[in-house]
Design brief:
The protein has 415 residues and is α/β, with parallel strands linked by helices. Strand 5, helix 6 and strand 6 form a beta-alpha-beta unit.
Amino acid sequence: MSKKHFVDVLHKELARIGQAKTSKRFEKVIEGFTKSHSPQALIGGKPYRVFNSNDYLGLRFHPRLKTAEQAASEEFGTGPGAVRFISGTLKVHRDLEKAIASFHGRDDAIVFSSAFAANVSVLFCFIKGQAADSAVGGNTLVISDALNHRSIIDGIRVANLPKEQRAIFNHLDLNDLDRILTEKRGAFQRVIIVTDGIFSMLGEAQDLKKMRQVMDAHEEHFADGIWLYVDDAHGIGAFGKQGRGVEEAFHTKADILIGTLGKAFGADGGYVVADQVIIDYLRESAATYIYSNSISPGTAGAALASVELMQTSEGDKLLKRLTQNREHFQKEMQKTGCVFAAHSTHPIQPILLGDPGKTAAFKEGLFEGGILVTNINYPVVSKGRDEIRVQISASHTEEDLSVFADQWKAIVSRK
């Protein structure tokens, strides 16, 4: 009887989600991709233009990455074998970490299975410390942007801090951050400010230079200082003239920077870069590094090739094309009268519709026209901020962008 009751509860919850038109489990099954400059997803044998991918530079289909992936798999096998401190570190993983550290101008890096895994573990280590007798934890205040990614939210939750050691500042509101730091002066030994670099639902950027100025004004009032922790998973490889994300755009470095290999770099896995002492501490303490396998050797080989490619003239050309495509898309969509949810200079271009029913209808209307997009609804965004999140790629052609705009106009005309 007890199991049946709980199963009924689950059925009711699924029905509630369905009625709210916010279901996420009915993913389209992609059977493959066309072999073209702008690869289209094959679903039911029909090609669809892809506008919901994080592959901002189109690198996941690049022959250089595929060749490197195959070579690394041939050399090291298809899997890592075990966690690194037990079975040893493969050279391809260390080569990748060194390349990432160099790309960001840091001492060292650690590769994780995902950026989500990196955030959960790294935040815990710096908020609480890994061991009960660790000197790392203690009287720490964590301040987080109100719209930070779920992985940051969960990382702070896992640390299980008392309420008085947690604070949230209004989204992108550095005056509110200044207010909190002023109120907390002298009450805490250490402060960790945590923020996304590019916010994944809006394409907005956190101004790290102004944030650092606010931090510097309060630094002396906290014995262990104020630390800046930035997750720039969507920015790295897609923002800044050389693709180094918000740090490059605002000429300011974080103390701890989280990135991903699974978006603009076209591979998979997450990473952290920082000073050597921080990386050494994390190798001793980060649970999702110590107790979880790393990415496969093939994936590491592909990611290494991608990081290297980003620093060539071809990488520069891809970044320029990405900017051109984003600007062309904005121009075409403004002609249709669409309202963007934010002013974004990032390839994330969120179109505000404000209603889950409308977003579902537009998503299906675009699908009928051979276009893949994703509707974003509560609780991923706030109620009334429902959107179609369009993601531009350097691999898109002008034809792709024009077809999207024409199909959007056709849907609007039917409403």
